[in-house]
């Protein structure tokens, strides 16, 4: 007779994500997750089979959550250039301080190593670019690929902020994107 699940997979995977973000991806072990979740290591092995499968499942959950957050923000902002900036500023709030941002880069490394996770990242990029481009439909001077250009500027502004993390990351991103959009639309 199979045992009842005491903790749903999603809650366990959230605990796995929290471990990876707090102590790096290498800290995710069945023993560490057992301690964090209250489940036995054997139960975790039974559910996921290997550390690689556990890590992938946790990161796929993170992509699902990012997809949901992106759709929610995209639906909440006006379809204007300022709305596009607000969408990216809203997505920047998850990064937090420099330590959290740096740990996030270690987690991103895991996404880049796994073809399935890379595919999720590419799909998210495409969906985000489409949402951003939709914010410029009334702007005749906007390049056709404005969404991808904004994403590149956004990611660059995050990276450059990390080298000199003064002030809130959201403010830095907002100012950077405002200057970028103004330059693009005033050609």
UniProtKB/TrEMBL annotation:
Positions of the DNA-binding region: 29-48
TM regions (residue ranges): none
Pfam families: TetR_N
A GO molecular-function descriptor: DNA-binding transcription factor activity
Segments forming domain HTH tetR-type: 6-66
Superkingdom of this protein's organism: Bacteria
Keyword Transcription regulation: yes
Keyword Transferase applies: no
InterPro entries linked to this entry: Homeodomain-like_sf (IPR009057), HTH-type_TetR-like_transc_reg (IPR050109), HTH_TetR (IPR001647), Tet_transcr_reg_TetR-rel_C_sf (IPR036271)
Key words of the record: DNA-binding, Transcription, Transcription regulation
Protein's UniProt name: TetR/AcrR family transcriptional regulator
Lineage: Bacteria, Pseudomonadati, Pseudomonadota, Alphaproteobacteria, Hyphomicrobiales
